[in-house]
From TrEMBL:
<dbReference type="InterPro" id="IPR003439">
    <property type="entry name" value="ABC_transporter-like_ATP-bd"/>
</dbReference>
<dbReference type="InterPro" id="IPR050166">
    <property type="entry name" value="ABC_transporter_ATP-bind"/>
</dbReference>
<feature type="domain" description="ABC transporter">
    <location>
        <begin position="18"/>
        <end position="249"/>
    </location>
</feature>
<dbReference type="InterPro" id="IPR017871">
    <property type="entry name" value="ABC_transporter-like_CS"/>
</dbReference>
<dbReference type="InterPro" id="IPR027417">
    <property type="entry name" value="P-loop_NTPase"/>
</dbReference>
<keyword id="KW-0067">ATP-binding</keyword>
<dbReference type="InterPro" id="IPR003593">
    <property type="entry name" value="AAA+_ATPase"/>
</dbReference>
<dbReference type="GO" id="GO:0005524">
    <property type="term" value="F:ATP binding"/>
</dbReference>
<keyword id="KW-0547">Nucleotide-binding</keyword>
<keyword id="KW-0813">Transport</keyword>
<dbReference type="Pfam" id="PF00005">
    <property type="entry name" value="ABC_tran"/>
</dbReference>
<protein>
    <submittedName>
        <fullName>ABC transporter ATP-binding protein</fullName>
    </submittedName>
</protein>
<feature type="region of interest" description="Disordered">
    <location>
        <begin position="270"/>
        <end position="293"/>
    </location>
</feature>
């Protein structure tokens, strides 16, 4: 299978542009300010799958929230499709790690909520909801409640709820961190296929190095807080990428490169320690625990 939407992203227009973005949080109890991001610069092109990795607390979610229009930067500029971000807009959809579903609503009504929130319910809604429920593989579960679903199925609902709004940009914050290893593998494969159809660019935060190399066109490695771009790595591996691709020397070289960059952001952990922890399963469990970094 080819993945046309992702292949030629380099020649495409810029979808997201962050220039000199800094974010400060007011810590009123401590009477101080926490600088989460500082001079953060990044471009994402149409059709691109960009993964962001970095140490815990380095500001990855903060950056996603800035793009979503949920957090206002203290300095710098952020544009989505050339328009400065001033708040949330229907052209961006966010998928969270914890699914953020409404337990009292069925699958169908949770997905429909994506359109309700934007005041876009009309005669096409029923068909659209059915289309995206089918796309994420949940046909037959329209009337189920979240409590009746597995973690992977709940995340599919979260994805369908984002996709149903047909956003121009998809923001995903560790979406597969809470699901088991096998489900995570399946979800990664399915996400690749889905975005090949829907085509919008994705900013995808993950703690999984293998996940980043498997999914992304480019990986942005972020420094310790205050987060800045440390390096951007092009993942020039053929698609589709599968579990077997992880055996390729090129895959392994990219994985090692990302780990090296990350380990240098963990001065208290020597590279040897990182290597041991990786050999002990971080690379492999990347798929399972959502951990690894
Ligand atoms: N609303 C807030 N108020 C105060 N501090 C915050 C707020 N949100 C985030 N922070 C702080 O900003 C820093 C960056 O947080 P953020 O959640 O963006 O990091 P992250 O890289 O996504 O972390 P993780 O990988 O652990 O999810 C952290 O130190 C966090 O405690």
């Amino acid at each position: 299978m080819q993945v046309p939407a992702q292949q030629d992203y380099r020649s495409r227009a810029i979808a997201v542009e962050a220039r000199g973005v800094s974010v400060e949080y007011d810590l009123s109890r401590e009477k101080s300010t926490l600088i989460a991001l500082e001079d953060f610069n990044l471009e994402v092109r149409e059709g691109e799958f960009l993964a962001i990795v970095g140490p815990s607390g380095c500001g990855k979610s903060t950056f996603l929230n800035v793009v979503a229009g949920l957090v206002e930067p203290a300095a710098g500029e952020i544009k989505v499709y050339g328009k400065p971000v001033t708040g949330p807009e229907p052209d961006r959809a966010v998928v969270f790690q914890d699914y953020a579903l409404m337990p009292w609503r069925t699958v169908e009504k949770n997905v429909r909520f994506g359109l309700e929130m934007q005041g876009r319910v009309d005669s096409t809604t029923k068909d659209k909801v059915a289309h995206y429920i089918k796309m994420v593989g949940l046909s037959g579960f329209e009337n189920s409640y979240p409590r009746e679903l597995s973690g992977g199925m709940r995340q599919r609902v979260g994805l369908a709820r984002a996709l149903v709004t047909e956003p121009r940009l998809l923001l995903m914050d560790e979406p597969f961190a809470a699901v088991d290893a096998m489900t995570r593998e399946i979800m990664q494969e399915e996400l690749t296929k889905i975005v090949a159809t829907t085509g919008q660019p994705i900013i995808f935060i993950t703690h999984g190095v293998d996940e980043a190399v498997t999914l992304a066109d480019r990986i942005a490695v972020v420094t310790n807080r205050p987060g800045r771009i440390k390096e951007i790595i092009e993942v020039d591996l053929p698609r589709p990428r599968s579990r077997a691709s992880r055996q390729l020397p090129e895959f392994q070289a990219l994985r090692e490169r990302v780990w090296q960059l990350l380990s240098s952001e963990h001065p208290e952990r020597s590279e040897a320690e990182m290597a041991v922890s990786a050999a002990a399963g971080h690379h492999a469990t990347d798929a399972g625990s959502g951990g690894g970094i």
